[in-house]
Task: structure prediction
Amino acid sequence: MELAINPTTGVPIYLQLAEQIRAGIARGKLRPDQRLLSVRELSQQLVVNPNTIARAYTELEREGVLYTRPGLGVFVARSAPALPKKIRRERLLGGLDRLLVEAVGLGFSADELMELVHERVKQYQWIDSARAS
Result:
């Protein structure tokens, strides 16, 4: 999976990388137990300080999205992060509220937004509801 950074967005580079890795997992471009590039390899590829890459990986490891096997590298975790459902729901609602504010600000109707959501849902890998609880 190709990762790209944009230093002009105002979003810290480590957050851009973390979000792209999360999106890659959600879209099925990164699979469980898939090895990611090493900190050094990715820093050379993106021409970014290795500490920035390490920070992104550390954040994702702390969230349970990635895991490290000493001497072997960084890998995509097998299961969804083990956050309590209440916290997961609160985080999702925060993102949903930001989306709704943006949609209203851009002049979309509720029907147009729902149509876009239905289109995009097809692009992601979903777990069954029994495992999500």
Summary: The longest helix spans residues 85-105.
